[in-house]
Structures are given as C-alpha cells and as structure tokens.
Amino acid sequence: MYRRSMSYAAAQASIGDSEFDRDTAITERAGEPGVYDAELSAGWTIIAAVNGGYLLALVGRALSAALPHPDPFTVSAHYLTSSVPGPAVIRTEVVRVGRTLSTGQASLFQFDEHGNEVERIRVLASYGDLAALPDDVRTVAVPPLMPSYENCVGPEAGPAPIPGSSAIVDRLRLRLDPATAGWAVGAPSGKGEMRAWFELADGRDADPLSMLLAVDALPPTAFDLGLVAWTPTVELTTHIRRRPAPGPLRISITTRNLAGGFLEEDAEVWDSTDHLVAQSRQLARALRM
Amino acid sequence: MYRRSMSYAAAQASIGDSEFDRDTAITERAGEPGVYDAELSAGWTIIAAVNGGYLLALVGRALSAALPHPDPFTVSAHYLTSSVPGPAVIRTEVVRVGRTLSTGQASLFQFDEHGNEVERIRVLASYGDLAALPDDVRTVAVPPLMPSYENCVGPEAGPAPIPGSSAIVDRLRLRLDPATAGWAVGAPSGKGEMRAWFELADGRDADPLSMLLAVDALPPTAFDLGLVAWTPTVELTTHIRRRPAPGPLRISITTRNLAGGFLEEDAEVWDSTDHLVAQSRQLARALRM
Questions:
Q1: Count of CB atoms situated within 10 Å of the CB of B145
Q2: DSSP one-letter code for A84
Q3: Any idea where the Acyl-CoA thioesterase-like N-terminal HotDog domain is (chains A, B) (predicted)?
Q4: Same domain, residue pair A117 and A158
Q5: Total domains, chain A
Q6: Which is nearest to A246 in space by CA: A207, A202, A201?
Q7: A261 and chain B: CB distance < 8 Å anywhere?
Q8: Residues A119 and A154 in one domain
Q9: Which of A5, A42, B191, B194 is least crowded, fewest Cβ atoms below 10 Å from its Cβ?
C-alpha cells in the first residue's frame, strides 16, 4: 500500500538528521548531570500552543540520555501549564535502575518574566531496550480498516487537517481517512474516530521518540464527534511496544466516552509491516470554544 | 440483576468503616506535612506479594489528603520493587493546584534491614471533584456482555479465582464470568479476557479509592490466554470517570497484544446503573513461572 518510489523519497531526511531531531535536541548543562537545556521550536505549534506530543518527545529524549536503557517502554505525562516557543530546561531523576527496565522522572520547565522556572509537564517513564526483546507476537489486534495512503486526504485536498494557523501542519505529512475527515466540511461522522497515515514531512522514518509525537498529532476526535471544542490533555500515557519499520505509520484514535466534560482518546500506531508498535491513552478536557 | 435483599446485606460495612478503609488508613507525621505513615496489611496479598491495586488505593488516599481536590481523575503508577506486609511511608508533593484539577506526586517506601527507605511505587496523579462535574454523558461504550451476578462463579463453586494461598481472596467477593474462568479447570478460552462482578467482602460500597484497587484485582488475563505466567505490573494508569452507584461493579479486562514478553491489560469498570465509572490500562511483563 505504500511505495518507496514516491518522488519525495529522494530528499528523505534520516533519523538523527532531520527537523524533528534538530528541534528535539538537548544539551546537558556543564556540572549539572541530568539537566538539559532545550529550545521549544515554533515549528510544532497548534495555533499558539506547542504540541503536547512534541513536548513529550523532547522529554523522552532527555530521559533516554539520563537512563541506562535507550527506549521508552511506558511514558506517563501529566500536563500542567501551556508551553510556548522558546527556552526550556528539562530536569531528570533516575528513580530505579534494573536489568531489563529503568524508571526515570522528568519535568520540563520554562521561565516567567522574572526568570523563575514554571513547570509545563511532568513525566514518569520506564525505559528498556526494544532491540533486546524476543520477536514473539501473539495478538488479536488488527490494523485499522482505512483506505490506502494514496486514497487518504492530505492538506492539498482542501481544508487544512488542523484548523487555524498551525505551524505543525508543515512538519507532518498527515493523510486523513476520508471517513474521519467529514468535520472539515461540516459533516462529522459523530463516531469519535480519527485515522491517518502519519509521516514526518522531511521523510525521516519513525522511531520510538517520534512515536511519542505521533500519538498526539492528529486532529482531536472531538471534531469527529461534532464538537467545536478545545481538548487540552490532562494526562497521556504511551506504551511503545516495538521498534517501527521504515515507512509511514497508520494511527487510529477512538473516543468512546465523553462524560462530565472529560473524554479519553485511545490511540493505536501500526507500522508498514502491520505490527502494532504503540498504544496510548489520554484523558482530556472538553472545553467549548 | 443485583438485588439488595441478599442475605449478607444486613452485615454490610460502610464507606469509612470497613476492612478496606482500616487497611488503607494513613497517619500524617507530626511536623512533616504531606508525609504519611501506613501499615501494609497482610490481608491483600497474592501469594506473598501485596496487591498492586491495594497499594495504589493507599497512595491514592494520601494524595487525596495532600491535594485540595478530593477525587482521583487520572493516576499513573510505576511499580519499582515488590511490597511486603508491614510498615510503609508515603511522601507526597503538591505539583500544581488549579481551579478544576490539582496534580500531585507520591512515592510509597518500605524499609530495608538498616531502616533505609526503599521505594516501591511512584505515582503521578491529577485530582478533581467528581461531584462538581456536569451529569452529561455521551458514549458508545456498552456494559460487558456477561451473565448475571447469580450466574457468575464465586470461590464456593470450585477452584479459587486466584491460585495459591492468597489472602486477598477473603477480602473480595469476586464472581467470574464462566466464559473467562475456564483456565481454572485447564480450559482457557485463549482470548485474553477476564470479566467479573466485584465487591468488597464486607459489602462496603465502591468509591473512587476502592476502584483503584478493583482495576488490578482480577486474575491476570494471561491465565485466559493459557499462559502459566506471573505478570508483574510495570505501569498502571487509571481514569476515574464518575462516582460509582451502590452495588457491585462489573469489571472487564482485555489483553489484545502480547509481544516481546510484555502485554497490556485494559480494564473497564461499570456500576450498577450501567455507567462506565473507570478505565485503566497497564503494561505488564509476562514471566514464565
């Protein structure tokens, strides 16, 4: 369903040398082990706010540097205050080091007008080594039923997949399943579903860190429910289950229960070899716009 | 499907005066605000280990005391080392206080032979006030298809629902859906499902704290997959979506993907009025016994 012969493949960026890697770069402070300076890029904003998945990828990179294991296995993030483009500092703590798994904590801070640190997001995570896992898979999960890459809808087809002036649109190659894109023309399905093919715009392949971005990069399922709502994340937990194969990801997000002004968003991420590579769930508020 | 006229109803314990409440009691240390002493009861063990949901309820109670909002909305727990019955201390931190939600962190420690604190579980949680939420519900979720309370299987019917010498069996009134109890007689369904009616044995009604126990109190779905495996929790995140009505809960747990020695367990909790009151997901390891 996806062919590498597409014209843009020639200019493909690689893991380690891409927009995503440059914009999630961290620098450990001299004399302060586990403390990393970073710059939140304006390239990953939705309207004015920095995307929560981009933030998570940045924190995930810092934890990967701080912990002895390289890959996020489960990452729980609680979102505290809205982030803005500009300087940030990530403070990590090694909580426990084990043979198979290590657990760490990290907070990302920005600065108020007096230079005081303001916490944006706090994360607890357990890391391991995906390459060290046995290859056994026993699953009843099946990839989402959705049209081929070519038959899904990119921004060139009409309405922007994310409304407003959102820089992140240019960093992603997001092709929505037409069945979940009706909201863009005033005809939401009402089912609370969102499905898309996902790639970084410069063609960089997916890896565990970019999947922390991917799980929070689709338009909100609330749009497909017919709500004109802003749905800020309260908490987002992501399980990275397998290293993704090269090629675009398929992401399927479902909301089943909107109650008392809160909703869950369950995401599954599938790679080009039909493996379930990540699962996530977030609790979000539904705030009428 | 459930009738209050059952004979045990006369001796029913109440919220605040029950085994569960006594065994999750905490005492704030004089002069150390936010630090709580507790005693892990031997009554909630599975074989030798203290149940992870019981631990979570204890930490949840401490956070409820430390934060200005009473109810857990989303609780992310990373399990570090195995707990044993005996003294423990819970150290809490107020991370952020907002109007609708507050976020806190807590760690539960026990003590090594030199009296040094050993961290058992670390928790990030956002709390709110369930009673303050509007009553709107918009959902496509439906209660699990399972037999009535009377037609599910309690311990009196034959094999213990949890194998081994497990004290927790006496604290719970757990009635398994026969369709997910076949493993107890050597005939697992292979589907990775577990469903049960759930009550505390002394008849105390459910509340948000007891639901933190409930989501981790059923036999592991691995048994229904036909695995003889110990599946320790790496991380467990629970969303409490609504205050449960009196009466037994129905809990449905599903595992779809066992890969690389890890599996997810997704739980839904339904109350006696057919409301979805909690959702949880855990990442667990599958270790052959």
A1: 9
A2: -
A3: 41-126
A4: no
A5: 2
A6: A207
A7: yes
A8: no
A9: A5
Return the closest-CA partner of residue A267 out of A283, A256, A278: A278
| Co-location of A202 and A276 in the same domain | yes
Mutation pick from A137, A235, A236, A282 vs chain B, by most beta carbons of B within 10 Å, is A235
Q: Are residues A77 and A20 in the same domain?
A: yes
Which residues of chain B make contact with A252, given a CB cutoff of 8 A? none
Determine the structural domain holding residue B122 and report its residue range.
Answer: 14-130
Tokens encoding A124? 């607890």
Provide the sign of the torsion angle of the four alpha carbons B210, B212, B214, B217, taken in this order.
negative
- Are A190 and A263 found together in one domain? yes
B55's enclosing H/E stretch is helix B52-66
3-state secondary structure of A25: coil
What distance in Å separates residue B177's CA from the closest CA in chain A? 21
B3 belongs to a structural domain: no
Domain boundary among A130, A162, A197: A130
Maximum distance among all alpha carbons in chain B? 56
**CATH of residue A230:** 2.40.160.210
Nearest to A126 among B78, B96, B264 (CB): B78
Based on the domain organization, do B124 and B156 belong to the same domain? no
Residue A5 lies in a domain: no
Question: What's the CA gap between B145 and B143, in Å, rounded?
Answer: 6
Residue among A135, A78, A130 nearest A100 (CA): A130
Digitized pLDDT (tens) for each residue of chain B, 289 residues in all: 444 444 444 568 999 999 999 999 999 999 999 999 999 999 999 877 899 999 999 999 999 999 999 999 999 999 999 999 999 999 999 999 999 999 999 999 999 999 999 999 999 999 999 999 999 999 999 999 999 999 999 877 655 555 556 788 889 999 999 999 999 889 999 999 999 999 999 999 999 999 999 999 999 999 999 998 889 999 999 999 999 999 999 999 999 999 999 999 999 999 999 999 999 999 999 998 7
Q: Do B280 and B154 fall within a single domain?
A: yes
B74: nearest CB among A101, A279, A283: A283
If one counts every other C-beta atom within 10 angstroms of the C-beta of residue B230, the result is 16
